[in-house]
Amino acid sequence: MRRKRGTPETIAAGLRADMLTVYDSYRRFLAAGPTPSTGDDDKAFAAFHNACRAALAHLEQLVDLADSKGCGDVAAEGAALLAQARQDLAALEDSDESGDDDGGAA
After folding, report:
1. Is-contact 26 54, C-beta < 8 A?
2. What Rg, from alpha-carbon coordinates, does the chain have?
3. Is the pLDDT reported for residue 61 higher than 60?
4. How far apart are CA 78 and CA 101, in angstroms?
5. Mind listing the pLDDT tens digit for each residue in 18-29?
6. Which phi and psi angles does 70 have, rounded to 5°?
7. Alpha-helix residue ranges (DSSP H) falling in the chain
8. How confident is the model over 71-97, as pLDDT tens digits?
9. What is the widest separation between alpha-carbon atoms in the chain?
């Protein structure tokens, strides 16, 4: 039996929903992660950072898939989410670096 393929509209809607799910989960994970300068060790922060980067890669794959399926509007929306997510991660990295500078001397 042959499986029915989705229409372009259902594919776009599914990809949009998946991108929003990944982005929302990423934001919650980022907000709950190790707080800079609170005693979280370097290994915990590195593991957290790697998990964030994996989520970004997942979002990027969804953007690429949307683009390859001809869902340009959805790909553009996903690219905007990806850009925001990257900025959020960069801000976290910046705050961790500034936290290291402040907490080193007693």
Report:
1. no
2. 18
3. yes
4. 35
5. 999 999 999 998
6. 80, 20
7. 8-32, 42-68, 72-103
8. 999 999 999 999 999 998 888 777 766
9. 71
